[in-house]
Hints:
CATH architecture of the largest domain: 3-Layer(aba) Sandwich
Number of domains: 4
Number of helices: 36
CATH topology of the largest domain: Rossmann fold
Distance between the termini: 22 Å
Helix content: 40-55%
Mean pLDDT: 89
CATH class of the largest domain: Alpha Beta
Strand content: 5-15%
Number of strands: 17
Largest sheet: 7 strands, parallel
Radius of gyration: 32 Å
Strand order of the largest sheet: 3-4-2-5-6-1-7
Structural class: alpha/beta
CATH superfamily of the largest domain: P-loop containing nucleotide triphosphate hydrolases
Bound molecules: adenosine-5'-diphosphate, zinc ion
Low-confidence stretches: 1-12
Amino acid sequence: MDSEILSSQNSISNSLQQPSDILERFFGYNTFRPQQKDIIETVLSGKDAVVLMPTGGGKSICYQIPAIMMEGTCIVVSPLISLMRDQVDGLKDIGVKAAYLNSSLSKQAFMKTLETFGNGVLDLLYVSPEKLISDGFLTKIKGLKINMFAVDEAHCISSWGHDFRPEYTKLSQIKARFPNTPIIALTATADKITRRDIIKQLNLTEPATYISSFDRPNISLEVRPGQKRIEQILSFILERKSKVGIVYCLSRKNTEDVADRLQAKGIKAMCYHAGMPSEARSEVQDQFQNDNIQVVCATIAFGMGIDKSNVRWVIHYNLPQNVEGYYQEIGRAGRDGANAEALMFYSYRDFTVFRDIFTKNGGENLELKLSKLDRIMQYAESQICRRKVLLNYFGEDLNENCGNCDVCINPPEYINGDIIAQKALSALTRMNERVGVSMLIDVLRGSGKKEIYNRGYDKIKTFGAGREHNQNEWQYFIQQIVNNGLCEIAYDQKNVLRITNAGKEVLFGNRSIQLASLEKKLERQKARAARAASAPRISKTQTLQEELFERLRSLRRRLAQAKGVPPYIIFTDKSLEDMAKRKPVNDFDMSEVSGMGERKMFLYGAPFKQEIKAFMLEKGRAGVKVAGATQQISLDLYQRGISVPDIAKERGIAEKTVTIHLATLYENGEDIDIHKFISNKELDVIQQVVKALKDPIHLKDIFEALDGKIDYDKIRFAMAHLQRRTN
Ligand code: ADP
Ligand code: ZN
């Protein structure tokens, strides 16, 4: 099989190549991301390394490239069994020899993989930690050529972390058995205790530590007050027709409800939670991996076992419990580096629900949990760049505003909030601080609810005193009033609001408060939307590109289905985007596409080229301007046996133009028999003349040097022949 031949050829020459060659040939990327190269060189030099990089940062390449380059096999320890097959499929698809061993394999398949491994032909072997430490596995493989161990998700070793796995602690055996084999430990969890634990427990010898920025600039950040969430979510998804995403919900019931509502609007959505039978859960995962459904409405249990790189958005239906969890969840979007969106909804109620649960459950970590909850609430209410807040939380400083969060895009405008706050606080006082947020708003707005009359609140002086602001505005104001410490929520007493000393100062006019205005915020949002709508639509090129992207996406899906792998294994969204932008119709240009290594080119170059050509032809014929389309039309007619003069006539263009089209395409590698235009002898003659002439050569110079004996069309083809780009 070609794949076998290709990879065995690879393994002969790889040791002579540079990491950057491997990056280009196998992975199809031109440049390393920060630190990747240093990490690879460290590992190649036989040193241990600890690598901290965010999800989607590009950790895998750090051990995969050395594994491809070095003799022997790299053992990758990974706890995520469900990901192994995908990872191995992905590697095979770029021509790397990889396999996996875990409990999902049949005994037979297991033995077969062991044998292949024993023969020393594998570049990488993925093993679950249980397998690695079981039945003297390490002793058995002692005699084999192992070039390194990569411990993925290395934070699982630490009981301090959130993903502790007891099996991981036994990985200390690796160093004991293989003292001279380098170990590279990788994780996306960054805290110091975990890092120290990793080094200690794996017995790493003076490891080089690499810490990357945890910023994920391609993920846009937005937080909205949690009103009419479902309507907002619906319109969000409907505006993003083919983009897949996850809606994280708090409860199982909630995931089901949201999925139902989406389905009712014709959106392909499924729910996912730990209460479902495991087959049903894997079914949802599969459907999602394969782009067969657009949305999964899930509890946070969803996502650990998936490695889907083209999740384009993540919505949090509720305030998450803490910043770590939130960051990990939104990190599941945009792993391929293409643009992605994170949208969070929140309300006080969300906050109080968690607060109550935590307090009720008690436990030794209560303080910590509550303070973490406070931090995520502060993030939700932030009036400064959200990315700054997030990165700050992880101990990183972002110097400039990110420009890719809702605060940066639509900064708040402040108004004097004294009267507003006084109305609210005075109403509270008159109700003896015995009501929560929603009753307070009802009273301020003079609502006709029965409970108000029953409790006599319609008689107080401030009843209806806040009619000029609607429900949403009051919600927004009261959140800020609480946040500014003017009143507190008594969590232990049905969440009633209590005025603080600071609140009293404002109430009596001894202190002033600024409030962000919701009205102004909405005005600006509207103005922005109107501007965007009236401005000449992003440009025709943009929409054409999107249209082509959709076509390439469906081609990808067909190929993936035929092959039985998820679509993103064939190409990432990022590669397809790049392809839709460049519109390559020849091998040379196609090979420049991000992620297009040699093997991908060999496997998929032709069908994608074909699809792009078809797209151009169609658009060109419909009179839409697309660069290169006119050449494709000429070529298409030519390939149907129509002569150059007839093509010119039919298209109403000059014959010379048609010749230029064909010559250019030929020069760029198109399969055109140029002997129909020029003989070998003529080619030779022209070649001689070109050699004799000095650069730069104009057709005219050649024409004249030949005393006009060979016409321009032939010279054009001869030049194309001399400059033909062949891969
Ligand atoms: P991690 O394991 O850190 O979450 P991956 O190794 O899966 O991240 O890489 C995330 C994505 O980035 C993959 O699609 C990968 O192919 C891509 N990638 C990695 N390194 C580079 C690079 N140097 N240039 C372009 N893309 C890269
Ligand atoms: Zn920002």
